Amino acid sequence: MMQQVGGVSSHKKPVLTLEPHYILKPVRLTHLHQDRCHNDYIWAKDGSKDKTKVNRGVREIAFYEALAFASRLSHLIASYMDPEDILSSRSIGYIVSCHYNVFRSAADTYTPNEDYQSIIRMIKNVCNNADSWNWLAFLVAHYAGDEVVMSAFKSYIDTCTTLANTMESLNNMSVFTPHYYGVVDVQSIQANEHLPPDTATLSHLHLLLGNVTSNFRHPNIIDLKMGTQTFEPSAPESKQRREVQKYPKQAEFGFRVVGMRVYDKITDDYICEDKSFGVSLMTKDQVIGALRKFFCLDGAPSNAICSTQVDDILSKLNDVKDWFENSNPGIAFYAGSILIVYEGDTDTTSSIISEPPVVKMIDFAHVCRKQGGDEGYLKGINTLLAMLHEIRNEMRLQHHS
User: Fold this and answer.
1) Report field, pTM of the whole predicted structure over 0.90
2) pLDDT over threshold 70, residue 250
3) Number of helices and strands (H, E) in the chain?
């Protein structure tokens, strides 16, 4: 078992490792609390109804599955741009292909004097099956001016466009998350058995994810809980108060340090800081000081992070920021985290670190739809970037002094 950054809460199961390339993250299912579970909420210990805990584990599985589906669908959409590849598609891919290859091109090129034979040929070239004539009838009715069909046509186009844009956005986001390999049952693995078909009754489900630290010899890791609030809007007031009291500066900074682990070459061991350290950082200077500690800038210069690694981390954080600003289809990542990893053993190479730093978004149990995206998460990224730029400028000045 890998020691978790920030420690493990007494009521939570630990994250396990399958050395060296995988981790097993426990799925928190509501049936584990059947005595306190209702269809729509869980009775909290203080007697309040907490809807945010219902199916949170299933929600995280669903989000990872959506990312995986979007990644697969993106390649299908790209192949649909070539009509020769369309015949192999069905289901949702078929619908999207019809939008991209039939409806959009027809809507863009149609004129009142259009030869209907060309539309017929286009339909038959796109899809050679019985459904093609249904689509043909639909298009003919549309271009004949049938108001009901025209309205349905617009609704269809809007739906397909929204779907395509969402899938593209999720696919773009997937590069910021650990690789997802599915769901496994630890008990079945230990017994060398296949996953039982009735997964609803299992109590040992785990997400199988890529271990983002596996390529590092001595990884330095920091876990940052992002967002100006760490609870869903539907959380009971008692939970909202508890979350705010945990770290009152969360709303100001937009993130907090959950924990970090830094390699010490002298002792050949790790210096670890847990959640209590993170919530003790009440000023901007203290938070920057914690980041400097993570980058080993508070000790011997030989232990310090290479400036190119900081530049790489800044670049990757800017990519995440760009996604939130320009591609987020309307998702809020309450209680989500960003994990930053870099090589802590400066003797691994002479002057060039072979393995680049890793910046990944993790923890999606409280992902929600939210119009306008997630301003709180974005604020945290902007604050973090500003602090890291201060540190980078400090390193630049020291280099020239």
Assistant:
1) no
2) yes
3) 13, 13
